[in-house]
Prior knowledge:
Number of domains: 2
CATH architecture of the largest domain: 3-Layer(aba) Sandwich
Distance between the termini: 58 Å
Helix content: 25-40%
CATH class of the largest domain: Alpha Beta
Strand order of the largest sheet: 4-3-5-6-7
Radius of gyration: 20 Å
Bound molecules: zinc ion
Strand content: 5-15%
Shape: elongated
Structural class: alpha/beta
Amino acid sequence: MYPKSFQKLIEQFSSLPGIGPKMAERLVLSLFKKDQDKLDTFAQALTNLHDIKPCAKCFNITQDNLCTICTNTTRNRSKLCIVEEPLDIIPLERSRAFDGLYHVLGGTIKKRDSSKLTTDKLLQRIETEPITEIIIATNFTTEGDMTAMHLKQKLAPFKIKISRLVRGLATGSDIEYADDMTIRSALTNRETF
Ligand SMILES: [Zn+2]
């Protein structure tokens, strides 16, 4: 029905989370109506995604070797907040309630397979960096809870304060979608874990 290139783009959009075939069709049609300049900018932004990689230290996303948080000298280097995915950092940063550094685990424990997580790198950081407090900010889901427990065991040999975001965030909720107020309250009321 549509030209091949049009159909291909619709397929690409529909492969994204939350976008059905109808929505994909609408997006492609709206792109089609844009000026060539706008289309070029859009295409270039997509191409530039290739340059994004994990930060060598914390596994946040970055264009350089280290991310902008790791290289920021005003951050408190004694506090480390552990999150599941890079996107979880965004609401925490927006809340402005945390001034320490982060560590991105790269997911949760699935069927006790922790080999794909960056836990080993995390332990190395604790040994080599002046970290005195760990804040576990995994999601309040079954997997997030399991991962938090796994971290607690791994961190037990180190004599550091461990806390987890507790109040304000409902069970089953994703940190990624939490609003500023909720995050701020969850950070302020964090409990020893
Ligand atoms: Zn980093």
